[in-house]
Design a protein that fits this description.
Layout (H helix, E strand, L loop, with lengths): L10 H17 L2 H14 L3 E4 L28 H7 L8 H12 L11 H8 L3 H12 L11 H10 L6 H9 L1 H5 L3 H8 L3 H12 L7 H4 L10 E6 L2 E6 L6 E4 L11 H38 L1 H6 L9 H8 L3 H8 L3 E4 L2 E4 L7 E4 L2 E4 H13 L9 H12 L5 H10 L5 H4 L6
Pfam families: Sigma54_AID, Sigma54_CBD, Sigma54_DBD
Keywords: DNA-binding, DNA-directed RNA polymerase, Nucleotidyltransferase, Sigma factor, Transcription, Transcription regulation, Transferase
Family: Belongs to the sigma-54 factor family.
């Protein structure tokens, strides 16, 4: 079938769709952005994209000068974590948020809801309407199709979220999905009173959907690791510059056509793709501004790290960067997702710079720095008299004015994959 223009989309839907795409753009790292823009050029004949693709010849970042992998925050996410992150920009009451998160935790790896609504309702002693609102919220989040209770609902949710929902496809999915499997095209034509071409188009729409949307999240971190920014020192001041991959130029092609001589369909064509090109320019500009503000704020707050190395990393939370930049916490979260910074100490995921901390005698100390100290003390201990977790706790307090309980020391030691003192003990050679 030939592509056809439609005026069925409402302005509110277009705004919602564009907002969703803008959020998606912010989450992309440089490599993912290039893939997205290549797709946009294929879909929009009026735009041209120019990007500085040359990536500096960085020394492969031994993940921060060869520090142990156990120091690192895992940059991947499970489905529940990915979905819950989207609640950051939702204004939910604490009770309702608990109800929603309970539902998210009840999703299986494919994204389907595994708990009955009555059981969900009973767990919180609430009413049916509240549970319905919680389910509706979950089903509005990404990836499209999550929160469904069966295959029909999963596919229908994805169709409703498409740019131009097909009522025919939705009806077929809801009522006659098995007819597609049996190739009963003629029966579908008779049932809905439409042409074979219309049925074939609806079937193609349905076959393009994903029956297990949850597993899409698992493959979300598979792109090559290329730095999104470089931190360097200039005249004694630490600065950060975004790599060329994050600064594409979008040009809207001007064919110098006399639009007054075009047909209404042709004018609609040019107007549609010109508007989409202008929106893309604006969205990319906003993305660049957000990344620039967030990266610079992180560098300002982690000066000690850049001056002296990773063991001097300070505690930092998303909200501190949000307050300094004037951005929402959810925006900061998306800006750092899957992004990497090249530094003089190696290449680090931006999330690495957000660390929990404890209060020390000289100020807050990051968990990373404490782990580093524990590892250093163990590496220099007397192997015939290895340091117990209690002794390590006392040394941190006495030598570094850092109060850490024995239980916390044990937790960090296990995270470093270091055995207990009894298993580290070596007997003297006779």
């Amino acid at each position: 079938m030939k592509p056809k223009l439609t005026q069925e989309q409402k302005l509110t839907w277009k705004l919602t769709q564009q907002l969703g795409q803008a959020i998606e753009l912010l989450q992309y790292n440089g490599f993912q952005l290039q893939q997205f823009l290549e797709k946009q050029m294929k879909e929009n004949p009026l735009i041209e994209v120019e990007t500085e693709r040359t990536v500096p010849d960085y020394t492969p970042a031994k993940r921060g000068m060869g520090f142990d992998e156990s120091f690192w925050i895992d940059d991947s996410q499970d489905l529940a974590g990915y979905v819950k992150e989207q609640l950051l920009d939702k204004k939910l009451s604490p009770t309702f948020k608990q109800i929603v998160e309970y539902g998210i935790d009840s999703l299986d790896e494919n994204g389907y809801l595994t708990i009955a609504l009555t059981d969900w309702q009973f767990a919180f002693q609430t009413d049916e309407e509240t549970i319905g609102e919680a389910l509706e919220l979950i089903q509005s989040l990404d990836p499209a199709g999550i929160g469904a209770r069966n295959l029909q609902e999963c596919l229908a949710l994805q169709l409703f979220r498409s740019s131009a929902p097909s009522r025919l496809a939705i009806n077929i999915v809801t009522n006659h999905l098995d007819w597609i499997a049996d190739d009963r095209v003629e029966d579908l034509m008779m049932e809905y009173g439409v042409s074979e071409a219309a049925i074939e188009e609806a079937i193609q729409d349905i076959q393009s959907l994903h029956p297990k949307p949850g597993i899409l999240v698992a493959g979300n971190t598979s792109s090559p690791i290329i730095p999104d920014g470089e931190v360097f020192q200039s005249n004694g001041v630490w600065k950060v510059a975004l790599t060329g991959w994050n600064s594409p130029t979008i040009t809207i092609v001007d064919y110098s056509i006399d639009h007054s001589r075009l047909s209404p369909e042709e004018r609609d064509f040019f107007q549609k793709y010109t508007q989409e090109g202008k929106w893309l320019q604006k969205a990319l500009s906003q993305r660049l501004d957000s990344l620039d503000r967030v990266f610079k704020s992180i560098v300002r707050r982690q000066i000690a790290f850049f001056d002296y190395g990773p063991e001097h990393l300070k505690p930092l939370v998303l909200r501190e960067i949000a307050e300094e930049t004037g951005l929402h916490v959810s925006t900061v979260s998306r800006a750092v997702k899957e992004k990497y910074l090249q530094t003089p100490h190696g290449m680090f995921p931006v999330k690495f710079f957000f660390q929990p901390g404890l209060q020390g005698g000289t100020g807050d100390v990051s968990a990373y720095a404490i782990k580093h100290l524990i590892k250093e003390m163990i590496s220099h201990e007397d192997k015939q008299k290895p340091l117990s977790d209690q002794k390590l706790s006392e040394m941190l307090k006495n030598e570094f004015q850092i109060e850490v309980s024995r239980r916390t020391v044990a937790k960090y030691r296990l995270a470093l994959k270091l055995p207990s003192s009894s298993k580290r003990k070596r007997r003297r050679n006779k």
